[in-house]
Amino acid sequence: MLEGEIIMLYIHQLNHLSPKMADLESVYMVRDLREKVKLPLKEEVMEEAFCEFFVSSSELQLIEETAVLVEPTIEMIKSLALLESDLYEAVSLQRAIQALTPVTAALESNLAYLQQVQVWQATSSSALTAMLNQIPKLRTQEEKLRVNDEIKGLFQFLLRNQGFVFHAPDMVHEGPVAQVNGLVESMQKGFFFHVSLEEEYKKVDFNTIKRRVPSEELKRVEEVEQNIQKIKKAADTAYNANMRMINLSVILYSYVKWLSNR
């Protein structure tokens, strides 16, 4: 069995996966499988190998709870904009709203996908073991077509796509993650608050600017920032789970490639 943490050499983002990249990644994996894995494959060994990729209930709970937090956070920002106060930078508030608006749908779609994965993984070890153990024994064209359809169906489920590419435009991918991460970084620098020309010229830091902002307004913005931090955590959680599904798919592809040539 492949030992230790699985580190992809070429695939580091969801959009990096392609048949060519999977082939490149599989080269060293197939070599390790040949050297370390004994046949027939055993269910308990497979479960131990693949459990690190599984989706946990705590991850699903975090995503579910945070998905319903996004819209109230947007409304909090809108309420700041409605004040039309000189304290706030209207353009920054609007950019924050734009950054957060797609996140609810992305988290909800990701949650639905990962919930399906969690159901599948409950019986995956036995199913994968049985499927993979068949491959070296296939003799007739009918047997090969049947198992090939089974393998194709598995990859279509894990990758949400008929090709060996992860379909993620409706889920949490690099775009939403970058938007939320950028918003978190900007909030730490006082993104919402208006900076005067003099303050900008003198490069006054946010800790100094804070002193002229009423405490109640600071508190309102801090509440928004805390929510955005939670949203970031959920987005990162969903994205990392998606990456694990890609890693799992590449490893399974390597098993299929190895066993098909035995």
Overview of the molecule:
- The protein is mainly alpha-helical and 262 residues long.
- It has one domain.
- 68% of the residues lie in helices and 0% in strands.
- The protein contains twelve helices and no strands.
- It has helices spanning 19-36, 43-50, 57-67, 70-82, 90-100, 103-121, 124-134, 141-159, 174-187, 197-201, 206-209, 215-260.
- α4 (70-82) packs antiparallel against α5 (90-100).
- It is elongated and about 80 Å long.
- The protein starts with 18 loop residues before the first helix and ends with a helix.
Total beta strands? 0
Categorize the overall geometry: elongated
Low-pLDDT windows of residues: none
Element string (H = helix, E = strand): HHHHHHHHHHHH
Give the strand content. under 5%
Q: Helical percent range?
A: 55-70%
Instruction: Tell me the domain tally.
Output: 1
Distance between the termini: 17 Å
The quaternary structure here is single chain
Mean pLDDT: 94
Question: What class would the helix/strand composition place it in?
Answer: mainly alpha
Radius of gyration (Å) = 24 Å
The largest pleated sheet is described as:
none
> Number of DSSP helices?
12
Can you summarize this structure?
The chain contains twelve helices and no strands. The chain has helices at about 20-35, 45-50, 55-65, 70-80, 90-100, 105-120, 125-135, 140-160, 175-185, 195-200, 205-210, 215-260.
List the helices and strands and how they pair.
Blueprint: H1 19-36, H2 43-50, H3 57-67, H4 70-82, H5 90-100, H6 103-121, H7 124-134, H8 141-159, H9 174-187, H10 197-201, H11 206-209, H12 215-260
Helix pairs in contact: 1-12, 2-7, 3-6, 3-12, 4-5, 4-12, 6-12, 9-12
